[in-house]
Amino acid sequence: MNPFDLALRDFQLRRAAERYGNPITFTCGGRCFGCNAPADISMLKKCSGCGAVLYCSQKCQRLDWNGKMMESIAHKSWCSKFKAHLHRLDTVQSVIKSFPWGRVEADGTFYNDCARAQFYLLGGAGFGFWSQSGMGLFEEAEDDESMKTHRMKWPAFDEHWRAIKQEKAQITFMNGQDLLKATHLNDKDGWKLPQNLLVRRDFTATARFKAPHRVRSLICNWDDWHAWRNVPKSSPASLLMHYPLTIYWILCHTLKLASVGADAHNERVHLTVHYIGAEVELNFIPILSELALLLPHHDLDIVLFGPCVFYLGQEGATAAHRTSLISRSAHDGNIPIFTYDAPDSCGSGCVRVFLHTASKYWDKKDLPTYGKHPDAILACNAGLFTYDASHNVVHASLEDRIPFAVTDYQEYMLESNRDTVVLRSLLRNTHLNVVSRPVELNPFHQPGQRYLRRANFAPNLVNGFIFVVYQPED
Ligand SMILES: [Zn+2]
Ligand SMILES: [Zn+2]
Question: Residues 151, 157: contact at Cβ < 8 Å?
Answer without folding.
Answer: yes
